[in-house]
Design a protein that fits this description.
It comes from Struthio camelus australis. By secondary structure, the chain is mainly β. It has one helix at about 270-280, and strands spanning about 1-5, 5-10, 20-25, 30-35, 40-45, 50-55, 60-65, 75, 80-85, 90-95, 105, 115-120, 125-130, 135-140, 145-150, 160-165, 170-175, 180-185, 190-195, 205-210, 215-220, 225-230, 235-240, 245, 250-255, 280-285, 290, 310-315, 320-325, 330-335, 340-345, 355, 365, 370-375, 380-385, 395-400, 405-410, 415-420. Among the domains are: about 1-105, 7 Propeller (Methylamine Dehydrogenase, Chain H), CATH 2.130.10.10; about 110-240, 7 Propeller (Methylamine Dehydrogenase, Chain H).
């Protein structure tokens, strides 16, 4: 699905043929599929309206108007039949049922980075709340929206919450001014508190491993700390120095090469082909250690300094962890989780915009704001030029759940890259 101002366009994944066109009441600012892909919601925050479209019944339509309460966020519940709307100033969350047309209200949701979290099986929802200048967590049963547990948290200013993939433990972390991560069980018991240091900027990002055995915490001190699920103590920490000295670490360095153009292809090539022929190609060389990476000194007196671990993600098989240190914007670090050692560093020519693991295998796609997509797997690393006309700067990417294709998004366009599956 993609939106062009008022229009919602539904395409076939394999052919990109348009299957449905829907016209909304105003400019679409957010779209989201239901879990079973039968419905899609379109949020128009300026108007305080959500419209829902059915793929099976194109004539069926649904409009949710929050009226004077306004709208700042909208999302599906895991069953794909309830919509959660957050009103302006985070006064309440309204839960709308598509089946019974009933409405439930949840008061005092906290305005924070990540204030709603659902368990992977869709049974429970955790909500961060703020009342009387204190932080609370409420746990709800998603089938009937009944309150299961309500407890206060030992946080100064709660920043985010995230369930472990097995749904047994809820991670709650504090604002970056206070290094604190709290781990709660499903019945609201505090299992553990972890604090690496004091009096300095704290947690910047977190990621659970798919097996729920590890919790990776990225901090402003340029380190990733790994906690284990048995004692919730630190088992190791990964540093991100500007110089790589370990001879066992493979460093792939992107280098530009001028395009080798064959004269017989030049008679009258199509424009798209011509632009890809003359665009600068790139490939990877393996660098000899020690390698010095490009280090950017952060401006200390500005808000949100470019420092620390801004992105981290585990591979679907639990074997690798990819990280980005914002001080070294052109590098992706890939750690071997079985050996707890640095395995590979990708040194790009431009700053990393986004990376994401293939959901089916340990294959990482990276984009750097140019018209190339980079793929790494344990077998090696490759740079792929996207053959498009004009300037196509890839700012983000998204894998298909099958791992057979990846959508590449620029500011105004998108394209789909199809990967041939290796025959086993």
């Amino acid at each position: 699905a993609s939106c062009v101002q008022y229009r919602l366009v539904i395409r076939d994944v394999n052919t990109l043929q348009i299957l449905q066109l829907y016209t909304c009441l105003d400019q679409i600012q957010y779209i989201e599929w239901s879990s079973d892909s039968l419905f899609i919601l379109c949020a128009m925050y300026k108007r305080g309206i959500v419209q829902v479209w059915s793929l099976e019944q194109p004539d069926w339509h649904c409009k949710i108007d929050e009226g004077s309460a306004g709208l700042v966020a909208s999302c599906w519940s895991p069953d794909g039949r309830h919509i959660l709307n957050t009103t302006e100033f985070h006064l309440r969350i309204t839960v709308w049922s598509l089946c019974t047309k009933s409405v439930s209200y949840i008061k005092y949701p906290k305005a924070c980075q990540q204030g709603i979290a659902f368990t992977k099986d869709g049974r429970y929802m955790a909500l961060a709340e703020r009342r009387d200048c204190k932080d609370f967590i409420s746990l709800f049963v998603c089938s009937d929206w009944q309150l299961l547990r309500h407890f206060d948290t030992e946080t100064q200013d709660l920043f985010g919450i995230e369930w472990a993939p097995n749904g047994c433990v809820l991670a709650v972390w504090d604002t970056c001014l206070e290094y604190k991560i709290l781990l709660y069980s499903l019945d609201g018991r505090l299992l553990s508190t972890y604090q690496a240091y004091e009096w300095s900027l704290g947690i910047k990002s977190i990621a659970w491993s798919p097996s729920s055995q590890f919790l990776a915490i990225g901090s402003y001190d340029e380190k990733v700390r790994i906690l284990n699920h048995v004692t919730w103590k630190k088992i190791t920490e990964f540093e991100h120095p500007a110089t790589i000295t370990n001879p066992k670490t493979i460093v792939y360095k992107e280098v530009e090469k001028s395009p080798a153009v064959e004269t017989e292809r030049l008679s009258f090539p199509p424009r798209a082909l011509a632009s890809s022929l003359f665009s600068t190609q790139s490939k990877y060389d393996i660098s000899q250690v020690p390698v010095s990476l490009q280090y950017v000194k952060p401006i200390a007196d500005r808000a949100n300094p470019k420092i620390g671990i801004g992105m981290l993600a585990f591979s679907p098989d639990n074997c690798f962890l990819a990280t980005k240190n914002d001080n070294i914007p052109n590098a992706v670090w890939i750690w071997d989780i079985q050996k707890l050692k640095l395995f590979v560093v990708l040194e790009q020519l431009c700053a990393i915009q986004s990376f994401q693991w293939d959901p089916r295998q340990p294959r990482l796609a990276v984009c750097t704001g140019n018209s190339k997509v980079y793929l790494w797997s344990p077998a090696g690393c490759v740079s792929v030029q996207v053959p498009v006309e004009g300037d196509f700067q890839i700012l983000s990417l998204c894998w298909h759940s099958s791992g057979d294709s990846v959508a590449l998004l620029s500011k105004d366009n998108f394209c789909v890259c199809y990967l041939e599956r290796e025959e086993v």
